């Protein structure tokens, strides 16, 4: 490979890893019938003049497999946290007990499981598109380098390396999707 012309494979890999990390975060927010503190990560609360994540307003615990509790530190915020959860679209009905908000996780029915499985599939497709966009950027870098004097052999080597990186990340996304769909469909 040419010494003068370098394609930044590490940068491409880092960006593809970012797409995978984003997918895992989205998967964590999908409710599978088991309680998880991470399901509250996307929920923001209007607190002290700005949008704040719930985990910065109280302690999130999972005392049992089908229950999440939030011990809100500031009593004035309890109502706002409850309202944010209710309006978040998670489909959970919060119950108040002083400064503790309890979130019982209902059992998922078959229809809801299929729906969540489709949502997981669309999240995975978005991640695949992001990885392909990074691949396209890498291929564009290679084309520019070829126009600046990269040999055809070097071009083919770099293209193969970028494609291999892409295939590896797409495979990881597919595996993560398969695992999540199994988890969703598990009764």
Brief write-up:
The protein has 187 residues and is of the alpha+beta class. The chain has helices at residues 9-29, 78-86, 110-147, 152-185, and strands at residues 44-47, 50-53, 58-64, 67-72, 95-97, 100-104.
List the helices and strands and how they pair.
Layout: H1 9-29, E1 44-47, E2 50-53, E3 58-64, E4 67-72, H2 78-86, E5 95-97, E6 100-104, H3 110-147, H4 152-185
Antiparallel strand pairs: 1-2, 3-4, 4-6, 5-6
CATH topology of the largest domain: Topoisomerase I, Chain A, domain 4
Q: Work out the radius of gyration.
A: 22 Å
* Rounded mean pLDDT score: 86
The tally of beta strands, per DSSP, is 6
The poorly predicted ranges are none
- In N-to-C order, the SSE pattern is HEEEEHEEHH
Shape: elongated
User: How many distinct helices?
Assistant: 4
Main location: cytoplasm
InterPro entries: Ribosome_recyc_fac (IPR002661), Ribosome_recyc_fac_dom (IPR023584), RRF_sf (IPR036191)
Subcellular location: Cytoplasm
GO cellular component, one term: cytosol
Please tell me about this protein's structure.
The chain is of the alpha+beta class and 187 residues long. It folds into two domains: 9-27 and 109-185, Orthogonal Bundle (Topoisomerase I, Chain A, domain 4); 34-104, Gyrase A, domain 2, CATH 3.30.1360. It contains four helices and six strands. The strands form two sheets. It has a four-stranded antiparallel beta sheet with strand order 3-4-6-5, covered by helices on one side. Strands 1-2 form a two-stranded antiparallel ribbon. α1 runs parallel beside α4 (152-185) and α3 (110-147) packs antiparallel against α4 (152-185). The chain is elongated and about 70 Å long. The model has no long low-confidence stretch (mean pLDDT 86).
């Amino acid at each position: 490979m040419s010494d003068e012309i370098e394609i930044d494979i590490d940068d491409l890999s880092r960006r593809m890893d970012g797409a995978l990390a984003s997918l895992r975060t989205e998967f964590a927010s999908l409710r599978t019938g088991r309680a998880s503190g991470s399901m509250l990560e996307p929920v923001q609360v209007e607190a002290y003049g700005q949008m704040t994540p719930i985990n910065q307003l109280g302690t999130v615990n999972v005392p049992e497999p089908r229950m999440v509790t939030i011990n809100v530190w500031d009593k004035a915020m309890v109502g706002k946290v409850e309202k944010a959860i209710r309006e978040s679209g998670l489909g959970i009905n919060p119950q108040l007990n002083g400064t503790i908000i309890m979130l019982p996780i209902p059992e998922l029915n078959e229809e809801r499981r299929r729906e969540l499985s489709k949502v997981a599939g669309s999240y995975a497709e978005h991640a695949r598109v992001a990885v392909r966009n990074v691949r396209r950027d890498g291929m564009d870098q290679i084309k520019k380098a070829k126009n600046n004097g990269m040999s055809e052999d070097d071009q083919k080597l770099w293209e193969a390396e970028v494609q291999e990186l892409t295939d590896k990340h797409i495979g990881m996304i597919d595996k993560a999707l398969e695992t999540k769909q199994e988890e969703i469909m598990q009764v």
